[in-house]
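In response to a reviewer's request, we include the raw inputs and outputs for one of the modeled complexes. The two entities were modeled together in a single run.
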Amino acid sequence: MEITGYLLQQFINGLQLGAVYALIALGYTMVYGVLRLINFAHGDIFMLGAFIAYYLISKFAIPIYLVFIITMFCTAGVGYIIEKVAYKPLRGAPKISLLITAVGVSLFLEYFLSLNAIFTANYIGFPRPFEVVNYDLSLFTVTNIQILIFATTGVSLVLLYLLIYRTKQGKAMRAVSYDQEVAALMGINIDRTISFTFMVGAALAGVGGILYGIAYPQINVFMGVMPGIKSFIAAVLGGIGIIHGAVIGGFIIGISEVFVSAFLSSTFRDGVIFVILFLVLLLKPSGIFGKRIEKV
Amino acid sequence: MKKTLVVCVLFSVLFLLVGFSHAKETIRIGVITPLTGDVKTFGESTKNAFNIALEEYSKKGKYTIVPFIADDRNDPTEGANAALKLISQDKVRAIIGPLTSKVAIPVSEIANKNKVPMITGSATNPKVTISDNKRKPYVFRSCYTDPFQGAVGADFALRNLKAKTAAVLYDVSNDYSKGLSEVFKSTFTKGKGIITAYESYQKDDVDFSGIITKVAMKKPDVIYIPDYYNKVALIAKQVREKGLKGTMIGGDGWDSPELIKIAGNSVVGGYFTNHYSPDRKDPIAEAFIRKYKEKHGMVPDALAALAYDATMILFKALDSAKNPTPEEVAKIIANMKDFKGVTGTLRFDKNGDVIKSVVILKVDKDAVRYVTTVNP
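The model returned the following structure tokens for the whole complex.
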């Protein structure tokens, strides 16, 4: 009996981490869908989301739902600017130029924001907007933070699903990711669709950043690096370009991380995640839900 | 007329020359410390304390000191780069710092190889002064070492807290954290205590839910977390969220006002071993604390006290050397007996390490309180 409770508890811990990875992985996968680009700056938008929320909570003391909305608009705006400034001028360029630019944008965000005049390179305590409460459900316990994370992730996923499958804009996104040239022939504004996709991805990363900050209340400008890489692996694991693949991938990565540190050792947790990436690339490069193998 | 002018000019030149020959010789000193990054409050204290020591010295010392202060961001690579730059470009005569063991170890190798005396205030890992069983003759420190600190922590848990079981959580990528936890484990086991969990994590981890849920199953009496305040704050929060009740114990890495600020109630009731307590009754300590408070508006932490002592040891060695060559300065420090500093009376053993007492402090709601002193 006790062991089931223990396993369930660790499972909940994994879900908490996985939910945040899923939110970030969605941005990777959507941008890849429309642009065939791994947007390495995505982890830094996640970081930016946490910082914006930090300033909103500590300086203005506004209600938590407003923090979410304002942060999402801000990160979406930053996503839009990044796309316009760094990626759009390279639309016809080889894919490798785009990839290198993405790495450049990522490093720029990290080191520019770490200047003393801006965010500094220090570790900052993230103010929790509420006190932690533990709910004991006999077999395991859940905190209100975990409930907030599950609820926010759930709502975000439903909204995203509605956006992609029930709106015209979503249809355009799907069309662009299916075939850019044909979509353009059908009268879809490619540039606007790409910008929109970036903004949606960045908004989700912003939500991820807030949740991460609340769950692990300490932020710094390099906090996006590891979660960014792990979410990227989650997206690859689920099949890059596939929306539900990114979500499932995120949960798999989060849960395996927690279980590795619980049953093996935390020293192995990152190693195991990278072995997963390795195995996916070797055995099924298109990911769990990928159907077609990319023609290179 | 012209002649008088020439005489005047000659005289003034003569005066100038005489004046210059009386000016003090300048000595360049490097300071390496983390002014940004995960332990920046430590770095700031060190810098503040160095400046106070410098100000005192400049009033009565033999030389004019030109300081070069470098930020290592608590990153070994940054620290090594800073050391190379200070030595080769700025031509410093000695180095104060670095602050943490993981940066001090690579920097000590560089300093020793280039024969530049280095004194760290607070790097407690044994490897700072010794590599492959060989003493680095140019490297010193003004603090005790991990084996002593970890043992005191374990003894305190056994005797004062009457703990029977303990869990240890440590950063596997940090020499300081690893060193302390090994000694704690062996001392605690020797004293008939049982280590129920010995779990490691990595530098960049922020999610400890896996290991903490595992530790919570064992219900240990005490939890030993030998890490710096930033990590400790994160871990402490998660420890309490997972319903773990044991008393938390740590090392000198806890000594920052940020600890209580970030961790809030979760660290209250915890104990940690430290180098000095601001409540210490001693004229040197009181004078330093008063000066520090006037200048920086807060009570100096242990890091500040240690950095002040390290700097004063260097200045004393410079002044007592006939000719302050690196060899001479290193020899004088090694033979220094009963240096009276802010953190107590200290002398160096044959490894360049310091022999002195440990204090134990308790974390309260708004400040830390002195509990007891343990002598070696």
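As requested, we also summarize the result in words. The radius of gyration of chain B is 23 Å. The mean pLDDT of chain B is 88.
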